[in-house]
């Protein structure tokens, strides 16, 4: 992970007209990474840009931020919310969408751009990737994918000239916690960004290892879950809290645990127990 990335990214989805305020609050509370998408169904990228601009106006440096957005293929958009002209080539769609992201976010480069979901035809993933590669490094510093299976990731990775450095996926039982994807990421130096976990993992939320860690750290179980995912290594966590107290507490605890080797060593048995729990729930 680069110098300006941190273990937590602020997730801006589903925040509507509070997006700008919450994005600004998150950055001023200490988040350096912001995740958005040119996908109006779930994100307000323009308001994310307004929040970033407000934080920059308060003294945050652009070079201290990691700003990540996404290109979403036509099929995944709500029909009445496609932000670019869908009646053009994939190349044209991507060029228009990336330009819009830069304008919405009021920046002249993105730190990361993800292919939000695979195309309906996997062959189009590589066509899209070739276009995305043309933006690197001047307009986009690094590329990644989201909602990709291992076989889709493997195929793209093999053909990519500029390799993906980020995979952003749902961390839950249905994908067996992405054991195979995370293994591939570890082998290839790819950062695995987890989302979806807090509201879609009832067994883990009810597990004793989560309670143990929550008690040890005197934090909510949700934050204990983040800590355990980060403890797996090679991971980042998408955190979309709307509560400033949680923003501050989450950043503080993650900093204290992962900035202190002794503290992390103390948690190692719990992290090992968490790995065993994931394996058990996956069978
Ligand atoms: N690539 C994709 O397809 C995709 C899809 C969905 C989401 N995402 C990204 O992932 C981000 C996160 O989305 P998500 O669906 O995983 O969930 P989320 O938006 O982070 O929701 C977390 C929920 O848990 C609650 N919570 C309780 N304790 C918390 C704590 N200590 N810290 C943080 N939240 C706590 C929050 O409530 P409060 O607000 O009351 O704190 C919130 O309701 C999105 O904003 C987006 O950037 C990506």
Automatic annotation (TrEMBL):
Question: What PROSITE patterns does the record tag this protein with?
Answer: ALDOKETO_REDUCTASE_2
A single GO molecular function term of this UniProt record? oxidoreductase activity
Write down the Pfam families for this protein, in alphabetical order. Aldo_ket_red
Domain (NADP-dependent oxidoreductase): residue spans on this chain: 18-198
Which keywords does this Swiss-Prot/TrEMBL entry list?
A: Oxidoreductase
Q: Does the keyword Oxidoreductase apply?
A: yes
PANTHER family on file = ALDO/KETO REDUCTASE
Q: What is this protein's name?
A: Predicted protein
Species of origin: Hypocrea jecorina (strain QM6a)
């Amino acid at each position: 992970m680069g110098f300006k990335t941190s273990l937590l990214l602020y997730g801006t989805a589903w925040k509507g007209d509070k997006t700008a305020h919450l994005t600004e609050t998150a950055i001023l509370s200490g988040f350096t990474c912001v995740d958005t998408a040119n996908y109006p169904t779930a994100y307000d990228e323009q308001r994310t840009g307004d929040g970033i601009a407000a934080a920059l106006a308060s003294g945050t440096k652009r070079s201290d931020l990691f700003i990540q957005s996404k290109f979403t293929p036509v099929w995944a958009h709500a029909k009445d919310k496609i932000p670019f002209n869908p009646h053009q080539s994939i190349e044209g769609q991507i060029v228009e969408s990336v330009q819009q992201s830069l304008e919405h976010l009021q920046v002249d480069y993105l730190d990361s751009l993800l292919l939000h979901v695979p195309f309906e035809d996997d062959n189009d993933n590589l066509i899209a990737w070739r276009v995305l590669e043309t933006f690197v490094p001047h307009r986009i510093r690094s590329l990644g994918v989201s909602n990709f299976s291992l076989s889709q990731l493997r195929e793209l990775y093999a053909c990519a000239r500029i390799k993906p450095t980020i995979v952003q996926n749902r961390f839950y039982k249905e994908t067996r916690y992405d054991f195979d994807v995370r293994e591939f990421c570890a082998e290839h130096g790819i950062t695995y960004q987890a989302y979806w976990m807090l509201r879609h993992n009832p067994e883990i939320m009810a597990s004793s290892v989560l309670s143990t860690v929550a008690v040890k750290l005197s934090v909510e179980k949700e934050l204990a879950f983040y800590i355990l995912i980060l403890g797996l290594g090679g991971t980042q966590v998408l955190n979309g809290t709307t509560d400033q107290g949680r923003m501050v507490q989450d950043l503080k605890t993650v900093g204290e645990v992962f900035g202190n080797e002794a503290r992390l060593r103390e948690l190692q048995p719990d992290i090992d127990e968490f790995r065993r729990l994931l394996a058990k729930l996956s069978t």
